[in-house]
Amino acid sequence: MDEFLQLIVLVSKLLWAKAAAGSFALGVLIEVLFQNFWVQFTAAVLIGMFAVKMIELAIRYYYYHNFIHRKLKNSLGSPADLDLFLQTSMKREISRGLLPNLKHLRSRLIQMRSTELRLFHTYLRTNTRTMKNGKPVGYAIGILIGMFTSFAMDILHLEGLSFSQESTVKTVLLLLVWFVVAHLWMNQRIRAFAQLDGIVLACLNEKLHDPFEPDEDPSDDPYFEEKILKEHS
Predict the structure, then answer these.
(1) pTM score of the predicted model
(2) 140 in Cβ contact with 120 (< 8 Å)
(3) Which spans are transmembrane here (predicted)?
(4) Burial bucket for residue 55 (CB in 10 Å: 0-12, 13-18, 19+)
(5) Which long-range contacts (CB under 8 A, 24 or more apart) does 105-108 make?
(6) Which residue has better confidence, 76 or 198?
(7) Are 195 and 86 in contact (CB under 8 A)?
(8) How many CB atoms are closer than 10 A to CB 162?
């Protein structure tokens, strides 16, 4: 029995020694890798994108929580408002393919009255216009994040700020990457609004030209809200 326990202790020591040696070698490898600028650059960008995503999720959670508890006085300007509308009224399901998804969305939208579709169309157009006009702000935020990343990576120093050839190239590369990220994110939002608005307009035209659809008001202009917005923009 004593020999068996000694054997277990010996095997445990061997395994611990191998694990310690492996972890030491892995730590040395990670340390060597993180001395490379491109590894640091990739890690900084990924960590920055993760942090931005967490902030976005926190903002959405704030609006979701306040929406559920009826603490929002006006949710139309919230970034989660459209998501809440899609989840509650259109009952988003698992993707079944492009055409089935479009048919499913059309079946939901076609149940709305023409006035409701025009209001939704105005909402989407307003958000699209807001996103397009807000592009300079988005680009400025991307540039600020790039500058902050440069300081965090110790490329630039707050004390005795100076630009060498190396620090300038690295900082410009970070600014360019975050500029592209901001550009792609804003274009994705604009494209989503435009695609959804196209389906809304298709459903609205279908209802307006449907002889079996009761007229709400013959004098109604389907693009009345859009004209009002153009007059006051």
Answers:
(1) 0.70
(2) no
(3) 37-63, 137-156, 168-186
(4) exposed
(5) 105/199, 106/199, 106/202, 106/203
(6) 198
(7) no
(8) 8
Q: What percent of the chain has pLDDT over 90?
A: 12
Residue 187's pLDDT is 92
pLDDT at 24 over 80: no
Query: Across all residues in the chain, what is the average pLDDT?
Result: 77
DSSP 137-201: HHHHHHHHHHHHHHHHTTSS-STT----HHHHHHHHHHHHHHHHHHHHHHHHHHHHHHHHHHHHH
- Greater confidence, 34 or 57? 57
Could you tell me if 179 and 142 are in contact, meaning their C-beta atoms sit under 8 angstroms apart?
yes
- State the Rg of the chain over Cα: 28
Distance CA 53, CA 48 (A): 9
Structure tokens at 8: 């277990």
Residue 191, amino acid = R
CA dist list (Å): 156 to 39, 48, 203: 18, 17, 54
